[in-house]
Amino acid sequence: DTYNYLNNNISYNSSAILSVKECCENNSNAIINLTEDISHISSATIENDDQIRWNSNAILNIGSSELAEQNSNAIINLSEDLTDTYNYLNNNISYNSSAILSVKECCENNSNAIVNIVEDISYVSSATIENDDQIRWNSNAIVNLSFDTSLAVYNSNAIINLNFDTSLAEYNSNAILSVAECCENNSNAIINIDNDITYISNATIENDQQITNLQLQLNTIDHGPANVHIDTTTTLSFNIYLGDATDYEHKLYIHGGAPVTLDGSGRYIHFARDSVNDLLIIDDNTTLILENIVLKDFLPRYVNLGTNSDIIFGDGTTIELAEDSSLPDGLSTLKFQGDVILNGYGHGLQICPVDNAIQVDSGANLILENTRLEGLRDYNVRCIGPNAHITYRNDILVLCSDYTFSDGTLTFSQDVTIKGKDRAFIYQSAETSKVVSNATLQIDRDVEFRYDAGNSDRGDTSKTAFILENDTSIWYLNGCSLHTTRTGLKIEQGTIVIDDKVEIRSDALYDAEALEIMNAVNLQVLGGATADVYGIINLE
After folding, report:
1. Which of 70, 74, 33, 35 is CA-nearest to residue 51?
2. Which CA distances in Å does 235 have to 218, 220, 223, 317, 356?
3. Tens digit of each residue's pLDDT (9 = 90 or more) over 339-367
4. Closest to 330 (Cα-Cα) out of 399, 391, 291, 281
5. Could you read off the pLDDT of 226-236 as tens digits, one per residue?
6. What is the DSSP secondary structure assignment for residue 86, as one 8-state letter?
7. CA nearest to 306, candidates 330, 336, 277
């Protein structure tokens, strides 16, 4: 009756094929055929009718139905028939590791196994599992739950597809989730959810409920989708990207009917280069003051000013031009307050049609650099008051008519060239302007540089309102005309270079009104150059 041999529990047997009746204990790597107990025999070939216990590494042949317990890694041959094999393994098999099992009841604590079972499996990791019941604490697995899932907790770095109701999905990091209930403590995830979301950082969120202390229009950095509306003084905590494409229209509207200050706190507004419409719209009777902000790829045509409205580029503002541009009718004057930089990055800015193109307020300092400023004429680039200042740094200034600088100061830095055939650059300010060290101011061919500082109508004439800072400061006269009025001009230091044919003319009637070039000046007349001199000129 072979059934009786395996009718009892088989415990603690690993990696073995067993056919016995009773328990085999502590027997490892042995072949046993025996009917009685054998004790404490090791490494022997034994044939005996008694019980064998604790026999290791032996070949055993057990022919009886006595107890064989705790036999591990052994091949056991029982001489009797094995009938209804199903019943031999009808009881629990526990703690079997690294085995191929096909059983009915619970297998617990089995790791690294291929398991096919219809009941609960707990504590299985790193396995490929097909199961219809609850799976807990499964890490680094691909899990497909096709039925009701009461709980999936602590699953990290997994791809989860929940097709039915999910009561809770917690602590899932770096995963793609689509759920209908609350997700907490999920970072760096893409979430689409209709209920409350808390403690989520660095995420793209679509939510229908109110997000405290965050304007809906400013919820996204860069691309929108909503427009930005500002109606009171505001400090940015992030950058803004403005564009008018159909798939990311994102414009900035300024409301309020009063001055509105937008403080960028060092951040930027980026204007899309492919935009064709207005991106910065200012309501009627409203003034926008920009401070501490960078305007990337800015073009004047992006601004739409309402009636009686204005825009002021205030302290700490940097304007970066995206391409060659001109001042449109909508923004006819660029107004500057405080310290402001306009960087053309080699592009041109056409201002000839505009009467008051650039206005630098009292106490302000505009640095205009890397720009071809085309169309200076009359007073269309001017300082308001003696304390206003313009620095030209690595620029080309192109005259479209005679241009007069009548107030404030100028600084010429790096390489600056003044062009304009048969046009005059007239310096009338009584304030001191200069060519700084290691800089060159070139007056190009057929341009007249006229010095008329503090003309007689003002009664504050000055012969030293235009200076060369030191020997490395160069005034390069290239086929041009240098003309001084009765105010006179006195150059005490620096370098003057005469190239090509240069005309030097003084309107002085007396020696005190003469053009004076002092002994410390390094005067260089290049080969082939000529200087035609008219009037009273004093050379030391």
Report:
1. 35
2. 12, 16, 19, 14, 30
3. 999 999 999 999 999 999 999 999 999 99
4. 281
5. 889 999 999 99
6. H
7. 330
